[in-house]
Specification:
single chain; about 290 residues; Rossmann fold; 6-phosphogluconate dehydrogenase C-terminal fold; six-stranded parallel sheet; 12 helices; about 55% helix
Length: about 290
Protein backbone atom coordinates (compact mmCIF):
# COMPACT_ATOMS: atom_id res chain seq x y z
CA UNK A 1 0.00 0.00 0.00
CA UNK A 2 1.54 3.30 -1.09
CA UNK A 3 -0.53 5.45 1.28
CA UNK A 4 -2.39 3.99 4.25
CA UNK A 5 -4.33 7.13 5.13
CA UNK A 6 -4.86 10.01 2.69
CA UNK A 7 -6.57 13.17 3.85
CA UNK A 8 -7.93 15.74 1.42
CA UNK A 9 -8.59 19.32 2.47
CA UNK A 10 -10.94 20.66 -0.19
CA UNK A 11 -12.56 17.81 -2.12
CA UNK A 12 -13.06 18.88 -5.73
CA UNK A 13 -12.22 17.97 -9.32
CA UNK A 14 -8.44 17.56 -8.91
CA UNK A 15 -8.25 16.13 -5.41
CA UNK A 16 -11.32 13.96 -6.01
CA UNK A 17 -9.82 12.56 -9.22
CA UNK A 18 -6.59 11.78 -7.35
CA UNK A 19 -8.53 9.90 -4.68
CA UNK A 20 -10.49 7.97 -7.32
CA UNK A 21 -7.30 7.04 -9.18
CA UNK A 22 -5.48 5.86 -6.06
CA UNK A 23 -8.50 3.83 -4.99
CA UNK A 24 -8.85 2.28 -8.44
CA UNK A 25 -5.18 1.25 -8.32
CA UNK A 26 -5.63 -0.06 -4.76
CA UNK A 27 -2.80 2.18 -3.56
CA UNK A 28 -4.62 3.89 -0.69
CA UNK A 29 -6.20 2.36 2.38
CA UNK A 30 -8.47 5.11 3.65
CA UNK A 31 -9.43 8.54 2.29
CA UNK A 32 -10.74 11.24 4.60
CA UNK A 33 -12.28 14.42 3.21
CA UNK A 34 -12.63 17.86 4.76
CA UNK A 35 -14.65 20.74 3.33
CA UNK A 36 -16.59 23.71 4.59
CA UNK A 37 -19.72 22.34 2.90
CA UNK A 38 -21.00 19.11 4.41
CA UNK A 39 -23.24 18.43 1.40
CA UNK A 40 -20.13 18.22 -0.80
CA UNK A 41 -18.60 15.69 1.58
CA UNK A 42 -21.76 13.60 1.69
CA UNK A 43 -21.79 13.57 -2.10
CA UNK A 44 -18.12 12.53 -2.14
CA UNK A 45 -18.90 9.59 0.15
CA UNK A 46 -21.89 8.65 -1.99
CA UNK A 47 -19.69 8.69 -5.11
CA UNK A 48 -17.03 6.56 -3.41
CA UNK A 49 -14.41 9.30 -3.67
CA UNK A 50 -13.79 9.41 0.09
CA UNK A 51 -14.45 6.92 2.86
CA UNK A 52 -15.26 9.32 5.69
CA UNK A 53 -15.23 13.02 6.40
CA UNK A 54 -14.97 15.72 9.00
CA UNK A 55 -15.59 19.46 9.04
CA UNK A 56 -12.66 19.92 11.42
CA UNK A 57 -9.26 20.45 9.79
CA UNK A 58 -7.34 19.21 12.83
CA UNK A 59 -9.29 15.96 12.83
CA UNK A 60 -8.72 15.53 9.09
CA UNK A 61 -4.97 16.04 9.34
CA UNK A 62 -4.24 14.12 12.52
CA UNK A 63 -2.75 10.70 11.83
CA UNK A 64 -2.76 11.00 8.03
CA UNK A 65 0.21 9.76 6.05
CA UNK A 66 -0.38 12.26 3.24
CA UNK A 67 -2.45 15.44 3.27
CA UNK A 68 -3.45 16.97 -0.06
CA UNK A 69 -4.62 20.58 -0.04
CA UNK A 70 -7.16 21.00 -2.82
CA UNK A 71 -8.65 24.37 -1.86
CA UNK A 72 -8.51 27.60 -3.88
CA UNK A 73 -5.20 29.43 -3.47
CA UNK A 74 -6.53 32.17 -1.21
CA UNK A 75 -7.98 29.57 1.14
CA UNK A 76 -4.78 27.48 1.13
CA UNK A 77 -2.72 30.31 2.57
CA UNK A 78 -5.30 30.90 5.33
CA UNK A 79 -5.61 27.21 6.21
CA UNK A 80 -1.90 26.44 6.52
CA UNK A 81 -1.58 27.63 10.16
CA UNK A 82 -4.51 25.37 11.16
CA UNK A 83 -2.99 22.45 9.29
CA UNK A 84 0.40 23.08 10.90
CA UNK A 85 -1.02 22.74 14.42
CA UNK A 86 -2.28 19.20 13.73
CA UNK A 87 0.51 17.75 11.57
CA UNK A 88 2.15 14.57 12.80
CA UNK A 89 5.88 14.15 12.32
CA UNK A 90 5.24 11.37 9.78
CA UNK A 91 2.77 13.35 7.65
CA UNK A 92 3.72 14.54 4.17
CA UNK A 93 1.86 17.61 2.94
CA UNK A 94 1.30 18.65 -0.68
CA UNK A 95 -1.00 20.91 -2.67
CA UNK A 96 -2.40 21.19 -6.20
CA UNK A 97 -2.38 24.96 -6.66
CA UNK A 98 -1.67 26.65 -10.00
CA UNK A 99 0.71 29.24 -8.51
CA UNK A 100 3.60 28.18 -6.32
CA UNK A 101 5.59 31.12 -4.92
CA UNK A 102 2.74 32.47 -2.80
CA UNK A 103 1.95 29.02 -1.38
CA UNK A 104 5.61 28.16 -0.69
CA UNK A 105 6.10 31.47 1.15
CA UNK A 106 2.95 30.91 3.22
CA UNK A 107 3.94 27.30 3.98
CA UNK A 108 7.45 28.28 5.05
CA UNK A 109 5.98 30.83 7.48
CA UNK A 110 3.25 28.56 8.85
CA UNK A 111 4.79 25.09 9.01
CA UNK A 112 8.02 25.82 10.85
CA UNK A 113 9.96 22.61 11.53
CA UNK A 114 7.51 20.66 9.36
CA UNK A 115 8.15 22.76 6.25
CA UNK A 116 10.61 20.17 4.80
CA UNK A 117 7.67 17.70 4.64
CA UNK A 118 5.76 20.06 2.31
CA UNK A 119 6.08 19.16 -1.38
CA UNK A 120 4.50 21.88 -3.58
CA UNK A 121 2.67 20.43 -6.56
CA UNK A 122 0.65 21.43 -9.61
CA UNK A 123 -1.16 18.88 -11.81
CA UNK A 124 -1.40 20.22 -15.37
CA UNK A 125 -4.75 18.56 -15.84
CA UNK A 126 -8.38 19.45 -15.46
CA UNK A 127 -11.50 20.35 -17.36
CA UNK A 128 -13.74 23.40 -17.52
CA UNK A 129 -15.99 21.59 -15.03
CA UNK A 130 -15.48 21.82 -11.28
CA UNK A 131 -16.56 20.02 -8.15
CA UNK A 132 -16.26 16.47 -6.89
CA UNK A 133 -19.07 15.36 -9.20
CA UNK A 134 -16.80 16.10 -12.18
CA UNK A 135 -13.89 14.02 -10.85
CA UNK A 136 -12.74 10.86 -12.62
CA UNK A 137 -9.90 8.40 -12.10
CA UNK A 138 -8.28 8.80 -15.53
CA UNK A 139 -7.79 12.58 -15.33
CA UNK A 140 -4.00 12.48 -14.89
CA UNK A 141 -3.08 9.78 -17.40
CA UNK A 142 -0.39 11.14 -19.76
CA UNK A 143 -0.65 14.60 -18.18
CA UNK A 144 2.18 16.41 -16.46
CA UNK A 145 2.38 17.10 -12.77
CA UNK A 146 4.92 19.74 -11.80
CA UNK A 147 6.56 19.56 -8.38
CA UNK A 148 8.51 22.56 -7.12
CA UNK A 149 10.68 21.27 -4.26
CA UNK A 150 12.91 23.81 -2.57
CA UNK A 151 16.27 23.45 -0.84
CA UNK A 152 14.69 22.40 2.45
CA UNK A 153 12.35 19.75 0.96
CA UNK A 154 12.81 16.29 2.44
CA UNK A 155 13.98 13.80 -0.20
CA UNK A 156 11.80 11.03 1.22
CA UNK A 157 8.71 13.26 1.12
CA UNK A 158 9.54 14.36 -2.42
CA UNK A 159 9.87 10.73 -3.55
CA UNK A 160 6.54 9.74 -1.98
CA UNK A 161 4.64 12.52 -3.75
CA UNK A 162 6.46 11.75 -7.01
CA UNK A 163 5.52 8.07 -6.67
CA UNK A 164 1.92 9.01 -5.87
CA UNK A 165 1.45 11.02 -9.04
CA UNK A 166 3.31 8.54 -11.24
CA UNK A 167 1.09 5.77 -9.88
CA UNK A 168 -2.02 7.52 -11.28
CA UNK A 169 -0.47 7.86 -14.74
CA UNK A 170 1.11 11.31 -14.59
CA UNK A 171 4.44 12.41 -16.03
CA UNK A 172 6.14 14.10 -13.07
CA UNK A 173 8.74 16.83 -13.53
CA UNK A 174 10.46 19.23 -11.15
CA UNK A 175 10.70 22.98 -11.73
CA UNK A 176 12.09 25.84 -9.68
CA UNK A 177 9.29 27.82 -8.01
CA UNK A 178 9.71 31.16 -9.81
CA UNK A 179 10.26 29.48 -13.17
CA UNK A 180 7.06 27.48 -12.71
CA UNK A 181 5.04 30.62 -12.09
CA UNK A 182 6.52 32.38 -15.13
CA UNK A 183 5.87 29.45 -17.45
CA UNK A 184 2.33 28.83 -16.22
CA UNK A 185 1.49 32.53 -16.43
CA UNK A 186 2.15 32.26 -20.17
CA UNK A 187 0.79 28.80 -20.96
CA UNK A 188 -2.21 28.53 -18.63
CA UNK A 189 -3.09 31.75 -16.86
CA UNK A 190 -2.90 34.07 -19.87
CA UNK A 191 -5.13 31.84 -22.07
CA UNK A 192 -7.78 31.86 -19.36
CA UNK A 193 -7.63 35.66 -19.16
CA UNK A 194 -8.09 35.87 -22.94
CA UNK A 195 -11.06 33.50 -22.92
CA UNK A 196 -12.79 35.32 -20.07
CA UNK A 197 -12.10 38.73 -21.65
CA UNK A 198 -13.35 37.74 -25.10
CA UNK A 199 -16.62 36.25 -23.85
CA UNK A 200 -17.23 39.17 -21.50
CA UNK A 201 -16.47 41.67 -24.27
CA UNK A 202 -18.84 40.05 -26.76
CA UNK A 203 -21.54 39.53 -24.13
CA UNK A 204 -21.52 43.27 -23.39
CA UNK A 205 -22.15 44.26 -27.00
CA UNK A 206 -25.64 45.30 -28.08
CA UNK A 207 -25.61 42.61 -30.74
CA UNK A 208 -24.73 39.88 -28.25
CA UNK A 209 -27.66 37.60 -29.14
CA UNK A 210 -26.80 37.68 -32.82
CA UNK A 211 -23.07 37.28 -32.09
CA UNK A 212 -23.58 34.12 -30.06
CA UNK A 213 -26.24 32.82 -32.46
CA UNK A 214 -23.74 32.72 -35.31
CA UNK A 215 -20.67 31.71 -33.29
CA UNK A 216 -19.18 28.51 -34.70
CA UNK A 217 -16.90 25.74 -33.51
CA UNK A 218 -13.79 27.90 -33.43
CA UNK A 219 -15.41 30.27 -30.95
CA UNK A 220 -16.57 27.35 -28.79
CA UNK A 221 -13.08 25.79 -28.82
CA UNK A 222 -11.27 29.02 -28.03
CA UNK A 223 -13.63 30.04 -25.21
CA UNK A 224 -14.20 26.62 -23.60
CA UNK A 225 -12.03 27.51 -20.61
CA UNK A 226 -14.16 30.58 -19.87
CA UNK A 227 -16.52 28.05 -18.28
CA UNK A 228 -13.87 27.32 -15.63
CA UNK A 229 -14.46 28.12 -11.97
CA UNK A 230 -14.40 31.96 -11.64
CA UNK A 231 -13.45 31.88 -7.95
CA UNK A 232 -10.43 29.69 -8.63
CA UNK A 233 -9.18 31.87 -11.47
CA UNK A 234 -9.78 35.04 -9.46
CA UNK A 235 -7.42 33.62 -6.83
CA UNK A 236 -4.82 32.58 -9.40
CA UNK A 237 -4.67 36.11 -10.80
CA UNK A 238 -3.62 37.55 -7.48
CA UNK A 239 -1.48 34.63 -6.33
CA UNK A 240 0.61 34.86 -9.51
CA UNK A 241 0.13 38.60 -9.98
CA UNK A 242 3.63 39.69 -10.98
CA UNK A 243 4.28 36.95 -13.54
CA UNK A 244 0.80 37.31 -15.02
CA UNK A 245 1.11 41.09 -15.38
CA UNK A 246 4.41 40.71 -17.23
CA UNK A 247 2.85 38.18 -19.58
CA UNK A 248 -0.19 40.40 -20.16
CA UNK A 249 2.13 43.28 -21.05
CA UNK A 250 3.93 41.14 -23.64
CA UNK A 251 0.63 39.99 -25.10
CA UNK A 252 -0.76 43.54 -25.20
CA UNK A 253 2.30 44.65 -27.18
CA UNK A 254 1.73 41.80 -29.63
CA UNK A 255 -1.95 42.64 -30.10
CA UNK A 256 -0.92 46.24 -30.76
CA UNK A 257 1.48 45.00 -33.46
CA UNK A 258 -1.40 43.21 -35.19
CA UNK A 259 -3.64 46.26 -34.83
CA UNK A 260 -0.90 48.52 -36.26
CA UNK A 261 -0.36 46.18 -39.22
CA UNK A 262 -4.08 46.24 -40.04
CA UNK A 263 -4.29 50.02 -39.65
CA UNK A 264 -1.27 50.49 -41.93
CA UNK A 265 -2.52 47.87 -44.41
CA UNK A 266 0.84 46.17 -43.86
CA UNK A 267 0.00 42.88 -45.56
CA UNK A 268 3.51 41.43 -45.27
CA UNK A 269 3.75 42.07 -41.51
CA UNK A 270 0.33 40.60 -40.79
CA UNK A 271 0.94 37.52 -42.90
CA UNK A 272 4.34 36.97 -41.26
CA UNK A 273 2.74 37.01 -37.80
CA UNK A 274 0.08 34.52 -38.87
CA UNK A 275 2.61 32.22 -40.54
CA UNK A 276 4.87 32.20 -37.46
CA UNK A 277 1.90 31.42 -35.25
CA UNK A 278 0.71 28.57 -37.48
CA UNK A 279 4.17 27.02 -37.60
CA UNK A 280 4.58 27.23 -33.82
CA UNK A 281 1.11 25.78 -33.21
CA UNK A 282 1.69 22.93 -35.68
CA UNK A 283 5.02 22.08 -34.03
CA UNK A 284 3.36 22.11 -30.61
CA UNK A 285 0.61 19.73 -31.74
CA UNK A 286 3.13 17.37 -33.40
CA UNK A 287 5.24 17.25 -30.24
CA UNK A 288 2.24 16.01 -28.24
CA UNK A 289 1.56 13.01 -30.48
Amino acid sequence: MLIEHLSIIGVGLISGSLARALKKAKLVGRVTGCNRCEDTLKKAVELGVIDDYTLDISEAVKGADVVVIGTPLSATEKLLPQIAEALDAKTVLTDVGSAKASVVNAARAALGKNFPKFVPGHPIAGTEQSGVEASFAELFIEHRVILTPVEETCNKAHKLITDMWQAVGADVIDLEVVHHDEVLAATSHLPHMLAYALVDCLASMQERDEIFKYAAGGFADFTRIASSNPDMWHDICFSNRDALLKTLDVFSDHINQIKAAIEASDSDQLLEIFKRAKQSRDEFVSSRK
